[in-house]
Specification:
Number of strands: 3
Helix content: 40-55%
Radius of gyration: 12 Å
Largest sheet: 3 strands, mixed
Shape: globular
Oligomer: single chain
Order of helices and strands: HEEEHH
Number of helices: 3
Structural class: alpha+beta
Mean pLDDT: 95
Strand content: 5-15%
Strand order of the largest sheet: 1-3-2
Length: about 80
């Protein structure tokens, strides 16, 4: 797993914990997503899957936008459940 990807996931969680003043369970992270999607959040499994090829082709944008977007899905689910 690329170190920058893990560090960005952790940074997003740390920011959310500071903002919401609570802890969040960390997800499993995988680079086994294929196809056109850059990332997917599996809410019930607390799993983030990312597309390794797209990550390598667009690392800076991927880290800034895609990772934060998918982490936000998991944070929202942990806070509000399936009601969101």
């Amino acid at each position: 797993m690329p170190e920058l990807l893990n560090a960005r996931v952790e940074a997003c969680y740390a920011l959310a914990e500071q903002f919401f003043n609570r802890r969040f369970k960390r997800p499993e992270v995988s680079l086994k997503l294929r196809g056109q999607k850059a990332g997917v959040a599996h809410l019930q499994q607390n799993l983030l899957r990312f597309n390794e090829q797209l990550y390598r082709e667009n690392t800076e944008h991927f880290l800034r936008q895609t990772v934060a977007h998918e982490v936000a899905h998991l944070i929202a689910h942990q806070m509000f459940g399936s009601r969101i």
